[in-house]
Backbone:
């Protein structure tokens, strides 16, 4: 008799964005003429940069001719993309990252989800609360947690509360942990970790021989000079951290799919006997065995953003969304709401008025202002009392949404 | 202290194709002017079908304009592709497959590698010998096997010998097994399973409540009418089988990346308490949590092959390679060698002369005829004494390779 992986049964049935879609559809059924503005799911709305369009057209043409056709490429990605990433995001910033430490993939979601596979099941996982659900869900599926408790927490997981008091920086774990997920700029709170905070995490990981899984998918949205773009800006981080980066929000690749992961050679984890093994080799084995490379055409589109022209185009793209973020942040603040984020990230994290539960606020906002956002409780129990809005809408809708907020009876 | 997944350490160090590359490079260093013909790795050489090229250009243009830009798509794939697959490969052949049973992915390698994640670790895995290495390696990495023994077999795995006596059909397992990998048309033997053989497997799986993982990536290469293209042609297969299909060899997508997996709703596996759970829901959870969809542009390219024009173009593409297969098969046979496969598959499985070990034959062929192939032993211990040649080369090289075989001193 074939047995299922019973860890899957620990996961709660309804996924956050499925529940949102269900409620929006129910609302629209009763109110078919309602003009609903969606600032919920973090998907981009502007077209791809022109450099990527041109590069992909060229790559498609290459695939049409025998002499330039490309079959299987290196699973780790083509050199032209790896070297472009390396130069733009590391070497030119004085950070050492070797070419064979960069693994191109079909996106950060896959990498953040798959990375746990190279770790043993006995590791203690530390996860910020609230946070992007994929880190936790994939560890539940792998069997690194116990059951879901009545408090909304899985047994065996070290949750790191992120509260307004600490600027939504995850608190340090109380006991020992082995795998630490950090996300900066943060989804959903829109806040970032400072150099000092990252230094404390790297020091913790070095002391505890823990590994930091650093999701930096929104690095391109950092506007303030003193905020680290990469964890490798912190001394000693190469010995304790894996970094995830994405083209999704950087260059509008949410439906085009490209990301990459950096695993430095110095980064070790251990056998039960205490022997050190480098994680880069393990990730390389995983990547080459369970993945067959990102499409050549897509890699060409991604590499194009590292040209001078490309950099100007993504600066404009990011600037457009960050202007939306400013409009939302300032508009909501002037409407009397308390907002976080939106300065170095495309997310605004809004405190619900009068401590209203976040799903109640979702319902209120949908029915009274016809705006869809994301209830903070969907990202973890510490997200209760908060609400996420994204800056990825178009300008007109963003402005209209802010007007509706101002007219909302709080 | 972060622990590694120690199952990775069970895998042998050097991967088959890496070892081949090492030997070829060493040979070329000593013989820089040698004109080496590569019939080793199963990669295609002809360009993409024109319909896919045109569809991808159109899709790239859509991504350049806000009104037609596509962000996140459904993780399971766009309807336009799912419906095209369903009609062409199932409905029009009288086979029931529902739209929500088809999961589009970035290729069959990923799906064949990932599928085991939804199964418990206590299942007994049955794997043909010889076979495509990914099935076994991913089960080793997950911890579903013991250590590698001196006989080249992992403890706890049920190997299914495929020998010339049975036309390289895997023998039935001696005891009970839970997860059965089958590959037809087969890589590396180039042979196929008949209707009667598949019926026996489906009957076995139904009796044992086992699940068949049916890799049919080479289905487009079947030329004989009586060979099943899909396992769902067998009555009762919907209750016991998952099917994997690919655009890689069907339409030259090895570097373009698209495949799909079918998980019928009737297919159940069990909890330890014996409760039945449908695997489709588990795979859906895995697919939506650890994957974010195949690029829109690529899905458009894939869907184009299902137009009338597209079907004609892939027929021509496959026909070209199958003519190579005929040339190799007939040429080698007339040179006195014993060959299998090459009729319903792009692989020729050649018996080494005088029971020569397959790596010795590799060396002989490389040094005396400057031809690269793949030693059968690399696919499993029952592959010893055999050698794989692929029909994916171009015509001229294929003809030249056959001439060299004829002049080879056996």
Residues:
């Amino acid at each position: 008799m074939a047995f299922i992986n019973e860890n899957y049964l620990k996961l709660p049935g309804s996924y956050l964005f499925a529940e949102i879609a269900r409620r929006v559809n129910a609302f629209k059924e009763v109110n078919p003429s309602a003009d609903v503005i969606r600032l919920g799911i973090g998907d981009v709305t502007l077209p791809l940069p022109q450099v990527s369009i041109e590069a992909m057209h060229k790559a498609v043409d290459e695939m049409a001719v025998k002499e330039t056709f490309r079959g299987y490429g290196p699973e780790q990605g083509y050199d032209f993309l790896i070297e472009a990433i390396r130069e733009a995001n590391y070497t030119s910033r004085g950070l050492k990252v070797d070419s064979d430490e960069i693994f191109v993939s079909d996106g950060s979601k896959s990498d953040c989800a798959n990375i746990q596979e190279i770790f043993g099941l006995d590791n203690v996982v530390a996860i910020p609360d609230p946070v992007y659900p994929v880190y936790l869900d994939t560890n539940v599926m792998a069997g690194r947690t116990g059951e879901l408790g009545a408090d909304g927490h899985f047994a065996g997981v070290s949750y790191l509360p992120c509260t307004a008091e600490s600027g939504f920086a995850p608190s340090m774990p109380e006991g020992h942990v082995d795998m630490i997920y950090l996300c900066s700029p943060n989804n959903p709170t829109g806040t970032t970790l400072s150099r000092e905070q990252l230094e404390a995490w790297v020091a913790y990981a070095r002391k505890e021989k823990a590994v930091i899984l650093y999701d930096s998918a929104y690095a391109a949205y950092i506007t303030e000079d003193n905020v680290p773009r990469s964890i490798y800006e912190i001394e000693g981080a190469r010995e304790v951290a894996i970094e995830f980066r994405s083209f999704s929000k950087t260059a509008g690749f949410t439906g085009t799919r490209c990301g990459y992961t950096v695993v430095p050679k110095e980064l070790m984890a251990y056998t039960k006997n205490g022997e050190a093994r480098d994680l880069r080799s393990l990730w390389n084995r995983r990547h080459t065995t369970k993945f067959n490379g990102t499409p050549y055409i897509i890699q060409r589109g991604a590499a194009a953003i590292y040209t001078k022209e490309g950099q100007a185009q993504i600066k404009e793209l990011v600037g457009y969304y960050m202007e939306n973020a400013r409009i939302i942040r300032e508009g909501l603040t002037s409407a009397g709401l308390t907002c976080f984020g939106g300065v170095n990230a495309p997310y605004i994290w809004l405190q619900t008025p009068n401590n209203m539960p976040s799903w109640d606020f979702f319902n209120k906002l949908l029915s009274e202002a016809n705006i869809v956002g994301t209830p903070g409780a969907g990202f973890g129990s510490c997200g209760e009392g908060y609400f996420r809005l994204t800056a990825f809408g178009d300008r007109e809708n963003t402005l209209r949404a802010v007007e509706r907020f101002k007219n909302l009876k709080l």
Chain B touches chain A through 82 residues (CB under 8 Å). Residues 52-306 of chain B form a domain with the Aspartate Aminotransferase; domain 2 fold (CATH 3.40.640.10). Chain B has a mean pLDDT of 96.
